[in-house]
């Protein structure tokens, strides 16, 4: 076998291992190690296993990953986002489907301090779904809204997906965050529009609720959202104005969330301990997958398979739009079976040379692929966010009802994805005006 054939065979073995449910990190490292052994020899394979993980994890930029994770876990355990839904509920109840719209805005606000769609859906599901069900909302609308709105968590900064993409693709993370913010806002608007017009069309989906609250109580509820607003202004304001780098933003966000939690006296030693433990566990899992992706990049470079793919695409004269449509199909399929970070890190070593060869904007693509992966969090048969909501509601609502509820939101996502292709400025305008 030639080196290129060995490279493609390695990709085939990798896909087989993942289909057999072998953990993605283990599959990436194992195939890359074995491939380098076959290509160059055992000494080079052991050398790569020692050098690549160190070179990758020693990156200063990567230190922001556990810091952003810590910020999210502190906010979760300190309950800093509890006031989001209550404030939105009091201010939006007059709108058709007001509680569902409040849940979408609550998820968007929660996204600004977590960066995780699963955490976003789980936290808001416990708060918003019981409230909607008490007010006789249609079960599919109530559960589908929170499952879909949870995906905003990976778009609105800080986004772990965008952070890892920026580090691997060598794209400025701050600009990726701004691109994700633009698409996150557009997604939020599209979800609100879906709820508004559906309930306007079929009022029985969400009976009108009457919230008796004085203006003073409404403003008091708005005041309870100050922890999230302070964090958003602190982290995103510093990034947008160039006061600190994305790497420094992670540490600033974690420190600011801890200060706010202590000021509110809403976190104890138990919550703080849980925040640190969960941060270490999640960071370790992410780093293993990311290290495997870095080793796969080394293996593909040594085999020449990456260059072969790029050359093939170039000589075939493939239109960038065709490449994007094919990649869209691939990610939608992968999203049905793999969790987003694993799917992204699995494919980037293969796709990046192709994207560069086709002169596709890597900043735009990072935001685009994040959106695609979040759609995968909703699509059957896996639909991780759907099963997160199922764990929240228990046996009272069938899984099929939740899947039925997300279909309208998937239609809205299709519109957003189309807009991103037709009008790339949706993802690139905010980064273009960001202070360098």
Describe what you observe in this structure.
- With 436 residues, this protein is mainly α.
- The chain has one domain (62-289, 306-433).
- 79% of the residues lie in helices and 0% in strands.
- The chain contains 21 helices and no strands.
- It has helices spanning 3-19, 24-39, 42-57, 64-78, 82-92, 98-114, 117-134, 139-149, 160-169, 173-201, 215-223, 226-241, 246-264, 269-303, 305-316, 320-337, 340-357, 362-376, 384-393, 399-422, 425-433.
- Helix 19 runs antiparallel to helix 20.
- The longest helix is centred in the middle third of the chain and has 35 residues, at 269-303.
- The radius of gyration is 22 Å and the shape is globular.
Task: List the keywords.
436 residues; mainly alpha; 79% helix; globular
Give a short synopsis of this structure.
The chain is mostly helical and 436 residues long.
Low-confidence stretches: none
* Helix/strand structural class: mainly alpha
Overall mean confidence score, pLDDT: 82
> N-to-C SSE series?
HHHHHHHHHHHHHHHHHHHHH
Main beta sheet, described?
Answer: none
The percent of residues in helical segments reads over 70%
Give the number of domains. 1
Count of helical regions = 21
Based on Cα principal axes, name the global outline: globular
In total, the number of strands is 0
How far from one another are the termini? 48 Å
Work out the strand percent. Answer: under 5%
Radius of gyration: 22 Å
């Amino acid at each position: 076998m030639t080196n290129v054939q060995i490279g493609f065979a390695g990709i085939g073995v990798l896909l087989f291992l993942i289909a057999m449910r072998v953990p993605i990190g283990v599959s990436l490292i194992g195939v890359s190690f074995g491939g380098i052994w076959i290509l160059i020899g055992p000494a080079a394979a052991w050398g790569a296993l020692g050098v690549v993980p160190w070179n990758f994890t020693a990156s200063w930029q990567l230190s922001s990953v556990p810091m952003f994770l810590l910020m999210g876990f502190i906010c979760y355990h300190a309950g800093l986002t509890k006031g989001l839904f209550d404030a939105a509920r009091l201010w939006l109840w007059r709108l058709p489907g007001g509680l569902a719209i409040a849940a979408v805005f609550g998820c968007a606000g929660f996204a600004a301090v977590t960066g995780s769609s699963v955490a976003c859906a789980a936290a808001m599901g416990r708060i918003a779904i019981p409230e909607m069900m008490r007010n006789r909302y249609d079960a599919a609308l109530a559960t589908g809204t929170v499952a879909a709105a949870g995906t905003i968590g990976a778009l609105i900064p800080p986004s772990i997906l965008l952070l890892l993409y920026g580090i691997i693709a060598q794209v400025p993370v701050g600009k990726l965050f701004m691109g994700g913010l633009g698409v996150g806002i557009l997604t939020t608007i599209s979800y609100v529009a879906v709820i508004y017009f559906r309930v306007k069309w079929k009022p029985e989906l969400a009976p009108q609720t009457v919230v008796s609250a004085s203006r003073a109580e409404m403003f008091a509820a708005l005041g309870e959202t100050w922890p999230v607003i302070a964090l958003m202004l602190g982290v995103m304001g510093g990034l947008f104005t160039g006061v600190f780098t994305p790497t420094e933003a992670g540490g600033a966000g974690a420190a600011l969330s801890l200060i706010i939690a202590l000021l509110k006296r809403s976190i104890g030693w138990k919550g703080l301990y849980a925040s640190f433990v969960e941060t270490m566990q999640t960071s370790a899992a992410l780093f293993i997958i990311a290290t495997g992706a870095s080793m796969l990049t080394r293996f593909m470079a040594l085999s020449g398979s990456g260059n072969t793919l790029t050359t093939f695409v170039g000589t075939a004269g493939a239109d960038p739009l065709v490449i994007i449509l094919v990649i869209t199909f691939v990610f939608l399929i992968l999203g049905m079976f793999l969790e987003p970070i694993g799917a992204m890190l699995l494919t980037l070593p293969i796709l990046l040379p192709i994207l560069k060869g086709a002169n596709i904007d890597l900043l735009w693509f990072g935001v685009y692929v994040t959106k695609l992966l979040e759609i995968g969090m909703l699509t059957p048969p896996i639909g991780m966010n759907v099963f997160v909501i199922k764990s929240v509601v228990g046996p009272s609502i069938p899984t099929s009802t939740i899947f039925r509820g997300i279909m309208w939101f998937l239609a809205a996502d299709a519109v957003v994805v189309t807009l991103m292709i037709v009008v790339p400025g949706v993802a690139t305008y905010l980064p273009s005006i960001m202070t360098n």
